[in-house]
Amino acid sequence: MATDAKPAPPLTMDRPEIDPHDFRTALGNFVTGVTVITTRGADGTLAGMTANSFNSVSLDPPLIVWSISMFAPSLAAFRENNYFAVHVLAADQTQLSNQFARPSENKFADLEVEEGLGGIPLLDGVTARFECRNEYNYYGGDHVVMIGRVERYHHWHKKPLVFHRGRYCALVD
Ligand SMILES: Cc1cc2nc3c(=O)[nH]c(=O)nc-3n(C[C@H](O)[C@H](O)[C@H](O)COP(=O)(O)O)c2cc1C
User: Fold this and answer.
1) Which helix (H) or strand (E) holds 40?
2) By the 8 A CB rule, do 40 and 118 touch?
3) Bridge partners, 164 (sequence order)
4) DSSP label at 89?
5) Fewer CB within 10 A of the end CB, N or C, for the chain?
6) How do residues 94-104 score in pLDDT, each as one tens digit?
7) Nearest C-alpha to atom 16 of ligand 1 is from which residue?
8) Which residues lie across from 149 on neighbouring strands?
9) How far is the CA of 118 from the centre of ligand 1 (A)?
10) Distance in angstroms (rounded) separating the CA atoms of residues 7 and 116
11) Are 160 and 89 within 8 A, CB to CB?
């Protein structure tokens, strides 16, 4: 189980002059890739969600970061397993991104899945995949920040899916 670094602060907006909707729009100007992050719950149920909060943290040791909403139905599964896998999506994987961006009990139904570390589901056709041990969890407002230690990774030469201002985009050289 990951180490919890801080207790959860109260879930209140301490800057009432900041409109959450406008704040989200401002943040959307930061261009990101798109990932699907997967794990397996204690009862064996597969869980996964689209996330663009992924980033690198450290090369040595190899650490990455992402954050998950406190209200995400998948959070319990991520807290239960010591491992998760980050899949960096390819340009042709918009449909996969949409499939993992809304609550569903059946996200994996039509997908071929390999088994990774800790029994986590691994997806194909991506540009990079990182199998991580869930090392530290920090409470950050309405999200839990997860830091993973990369234990195994692969990457392929494919164009990435890009996200900007709430829309999928293509990368132009
Ligand atoms: C491009 C994109 C990026 C997203 N990034 C995140 C993220 O970093 N963290 C998060 O908690 N939700 C993020 N979401 C929303 C989740 O994918 C969505 O709430 C999903 O339903 C969560 O899975 P769950 O319902 O199985 O818990 C993102 C959605 C999209 C479309």
Assistant:
1) strand 35-40
2) yes
3) 167
4) P
5) C
6) 999 999 999 99
7) 101
8) 63, 133
9) 22
10) 31
11) yes
- Looking up tokens 């959307």 gives 28
* CA-to-CA separations, 42 to 22, 56, 86, 106, in angstroms, rounded: 38, 27, 19, 17
Q: Give me the CATH topology for the region 20-25+34-169.
A: Pnp Oxidase; Chain A (2.30.110)
* Residue 149 CB neighbour total at 10 angstroms: 17
pLDDT in tens, 146-170: 999 999 999 999 999 999 999 999 8
Look up residue 85 and give its two tokens. Answer: 């896998």
Is the separation of the CB atoms in 149 and 161 below 8 Å?
no
Q: Kindly state the tokens that stand for 138.
A: 């920090």
Nearest of 67, 78, 86 to residue 42 by alpha carbon:
78
> Looking up tokens 């918009």, which residue turns up?
94
pTM score, whole prediction: 0.94
23 phi/psi in degrees, rounded to 5? -60, -40
Secondary structure class of 91 (helix, strand, coil): coil
Other beta carbons less than 10 A from residue 67's beta carbon:
18
Indicate if ligand 1 lies below 6 Å from the C-beta of 101. Answer: yes
Among 35, 46, 50, which is best to mutate for testing ligand 1, by the most ligand atoms less than 8 A from CB?
50
